[in-house]
Design goal:
Elements (H helix, E strand, L loop, with lengths): L2 E3 L10 H22 L5 H10 L2 E5 L2 E5 L4 E7 L14 H13 L4 E5 L12 H17 L6 E4 L3 H10 L3 E4 L8 H9 L2 E5 L17 H19 L6 E4 L8 H9 L12 E2 L5 H6 L9 H13 L4 E4 L2 H16 L3
Parallel strand pairs: 1-3, 4-5, 4-11, 5-6, 6-7, 7-8, 8-9, 10-11
Antiparallel strand pairs: 2-3
Helix pairs in contact: 1-2, 3-4, 4-5, 5-6, 10-11
């Protein structure tokens, strides 16, 4: 039985008639209901807005229907060297307890990673990464966690083992790959798939990253990858887009992406933004340390959600969730 949570890819020629028909059907239903309940409302404009944002995300047994309140993805780093909390949850017991704490704070998804992807991080073997993450995923799955678990990895072998252990989403920062093993896994298992943009690798990404136009270049990346994912047989309803803040971007690139998120709405897929505690926040806020970056992280989260991000990845679930709910309450009152 699927867990349905209520609350994109560019249109290729083969999908356009179906997408258009779905939009028209959605718009007709919205207009009919609004005219019945609230005569005098500009139903055409309202229906266009609602249906533009209407989409479905499938991740194995889980479904999320949009529009809905912004999803909050809580971070659990089972690593000794992650930039923010490296070492705090390296022990499996501590990581499991932290995951449940994030659930209690209102996380919609738990993202578990066993390899640091901070700039210049030293890669770990597949065996070591599995040793770190599998006990955590198995423990959460054994307690029938009611929300999806995401595995943050670039390795298909780790992703497969994690999905077999109970993960429902593959968060793949290495989506600029030349081989398709990870995509085939997503197709076979029905797992959700986060398609993240990164220029270079964690070891090289911050060595003078360059773009002609960072928003346009990331969109070009999405165009190419989404086409290849479709060829591989991965359903658009499995896909999540992440512009990759901090992954091969300067301060200016990160700010331009945050300011330009609305341009990615054309893909009609959920957009995931992860700005939590990142270095560019420290650059803007006069060198604030990682521990002092919560206010800046919350501003990034609210700004991203206002501009069309449907998912926020964060270390600070309770504070982020509160900020987003407040923003959404205010937005709902705007005429």
């Amino acid at each position: 039985m699927k867990s349905v949570h209520t609350g994109s890819q560019r249109v290729h020629k083969s999908n356009a008639p179906r997408r258009s028909a779905e939009f028209q059907r959605c718009a007709f239903q919205v207009r009919a209901k609004v005219e019945l309940c609230a005569p005098g409302i500009d139903t055409a404009t309202l229906a266009t807005k609602v249906c533009r944002d209407a989409m479905l995300l499938r991740a194995r047994q889980f479904e999320f229907q949009f529009p809905r309140p912004t999803l909050v993805m809580g971070i659990v780093n089972v690593t000794p060297d992650s930039f923010s909390d490296g070492g705090r949850f390296f022990d499996s017991k501590n990581a499991i307890e932290h995951a449940w704490q994030l659930v209690a704070e209102g996380a919609d998804i738990i993202d578990i990673g066993g390899e640091s992807t901070r700039p210049n991080a030293v890669p770990v073997s597949e065996e070591e990464e599995l040793r770190r993450v599998l006990p955590v995923i198995v423990a959460l799955a054994s307690k029938n966690m009611a929300i999806p678990v995401s595995i943050d990895t670039m390795k298909p072998g780790v992703a497969r083992a994690a999905v077999e252990a109970g993960a429902s989403i593959i968060n793949d920062i290495g989506a600029n790959r030349s081989e398709v093993t990870m995509w085939q896994l997503a197709r076979e298992t029905g797992a959700g798939y986060v398609l993240m943009h990164m220029q270079g690798t964690p070891q090289t990404m911050q060595r003078e990253p360059r773009y002609a136009d960072v928003v346009r270049d990331v969109a070009t990346f999405y165009d190419e990858r989404l086409s290849r994912l479709a060829e591989c047989g991965v359903s658009p309803e499995q896909l999540i887009l992440d512009p990759g803040l901090g992954f091969g971007k300067t301060l200016e690139h990160n700010l331009e992406l945050l300011a330009g998120l609305r341009h990615f709405r054309t893909y009609q897929r959920p957009v995931l933004v992860g700005a939590s505690r990142k270095a560019f926040i420290g650059q803007v806020t006069e060198g604030k340390s990682i521990a002092e970056r919560l206010p800046g992280s919350l501003v990034c989260a609210v700004s991203a959600a206002q501009d069309g991000a449907q998912m926020i990845r964060t270390h600070d679930v309770a504070a982020t969730r509160q900020a987003l709910r407040m923003m959404e309450a205010i937005q709902a009152k705007r005429k």
